[in-house]
Design goal:
Elements (H helix, E strand, L loop, with lengths): L1 H12 L18 H5 L22 H9 L7 E4 L3 H10 L11 E2 L2 H16 L3 E9 L7 E7 L2 H10 L15 E6 L7 E8 L5 E8 L4 H16 L6 E3 L1 E6 L2 E6 L3 H6 L4 E3 L3 E4 L3 E4 L3 E5 L18 E2 L4 E5 L11 E5 L4 E2 L2 H8 L3 H9 L3 E5 L2
Parallel strand pairs: 1-3, 2-6, 4-5, 5-7, 10-17, 17-19
Antiparallel strand pairs: 3-4, 6-7, 8-12, 9-10, 9-11, 12-13, 14-16, 15-16, 18-19
Helix pairs in contact: 4-6, 9-10
Protein name: Aste57867_671 protein
InterPro entries: PEP_carboxykinase_N
Organism: Aphanomyces stellatus
């Protein structure tokens, strides 16, 4: 009883901090332990506000970048709307482009390079994340993410990559991950490494340091998809255009930008396709590189439906290509050559660097293989 009395007198002598509450809300009764706590004194520099989400600061996107070993310290735009991206892209074109071929790199030096590039991209003022897919049909689709410091590249990829419903989930596993650092001064690099993590997820990582030609990037991405699919894959990844005329499908290899401009009305896919023997031919990309003179930029009532061609060089631009997810099996396959002649499926595959899956598909569907002087 004596101890209780001493405690009550001690509590009574403790000054109660004033509290401001609305008249309609009853003030909570503080506990005696709360009354004994000292008033916290925190230096002003440690009092901060939690950042609000904006187009350039999305918490889910930032967390997904952490899975890619990137910690964005500034703006990070994911699949930015074209009507916002196009003006920025025009003001920051890519520097000198170089021709290069992606080379495999052993895991140890690749990891060193990877860490250097991820650190640079994490400190980039404006980071651009392009999420999409290679392959329009779900049966042959492979998700891809490209993280870059270039709005010009993001603009191009927005017109080129396949847009799929899984884009809504920023944490969708992406078997192909590309890092593109164009603004640095370090030595150029164009290398990749394919690795399987402890969870059994196989991912192909491609590092581009210094700007490379778009056709080199496209070829590298198609090659990575082919390697990820494996030698036993039923579908054949081909670096070909797909032309559909009067219901007949034709694969065209080694086509030029001028040839694509001439066949725009019948072009179902450009730069790559995936031929599944049971499904048909699916576009690998949903965009096309055309000469500037062949670009048709039609006005739309809303920015959402407006086309925004992406200038890639002084001669060419990348535009979105409306195309079906899949078309019928090709009746003819054509490759440019010095003379006109028919060849066997095996000979044709050798001419275009095709896989055994391409030979099997050509033979299964009795596709006519032609070398043509274009």
């Amino acid at each position: 009883m004596l101890a209780a009395g001493v405690l009550r007198r001690a509590i009574a002598r403790v000054p109660v901090r004033s509290m401001s509450t609305a008249a309609s809300v009853a003030a909570p009764t503080p506990s005696w332990t709360t009354l004994l706590e000292p008033t916290p004194k925190v230096p002003r520099e440690f009092i901060i506000e939690f950042p609000e989400e904006t187009e350039a600061n999305t918490f889910e996107v930032n967390w997904s970048l952490a899975d890619d070993d990137i910690t964005p310290r500034h703006n990070a735009y994911r699949n930015r709307a074209l009507h916002r991206l196009a003006p920025v892209s025009a003001a920051a074109p890519l520097a000198t482009l170089r021709a290069a071929t992606a080379e495999p790199l052993h895991v140890a030096p690749f990891l060193d390079l990877w860490n250097e590039v991820t650190d640079v991209l994490g400190n980039t003022k404006d980071l651009y994340i392009s999420d999409g897919a290679i392959g329009a049909h779900a049966a042959v689709r492979t998700s891809i993410r490209v993280v870059s410091d270039s709005p010009a590249l993001a603009h191009v990829l927005s017109n080129l990559l396949v847009k799929v419903p899984s884009l809504k989930d920023v944490h969708t596993p992406r078997p192909i991950l590309v890092l593109w650092e164009s603004a640095g001064t370090a030595s150029p690099a164009f290398v990749y490494n394919i690795d399987t993590n402890e969870d059994g997820f196989t991912q192909a990582k491609l590092v581009v340091r210094g700007a490379v030609h778009l056709d080199n990037l496209v070829h590298a991405i198609l090659s990575l998809k082919t390697q990820l699919d494996g030698d036993d894959a039923a579908a054949a990844v081909v670096a070909a255009d797909v032309v559909v005329d009067n219901g007949a499908t034709t694969l065209v290899f080694h086509a030029t930008a001028a040839a694509r401009a001439a066949t725009q009305a019948t072009l179902a896919a450009a730069h790559g396709a995936i031929w599944h023997p049971a499904v048909g031919v699916s576009p690998a990309f949903q965009g096309v590189v055309l000469p500037h003179a062949a670009v048709q930029n039609k006005k739309a009532k809303t920015p959402r439906h407006q086309t925004f061609p992406a200038p890639w060089s002084t001669e060419h631009a990348v535009v979105a290509l409306p195309s079906p997810n899949v078309v019928g099996h090709p009746t003819t396959a054509v490759v440019a050559g010095a003379a006109n002649k028919d060849v066997s499926a095996a000979e044709f595959a050798a001419l275009v660097g095709g896989s055994p899956a391409l030979v099997a598909a050509l033979e299964q569907h009795k596709t006519k293989c032609v070398v043509k002087k274009l």
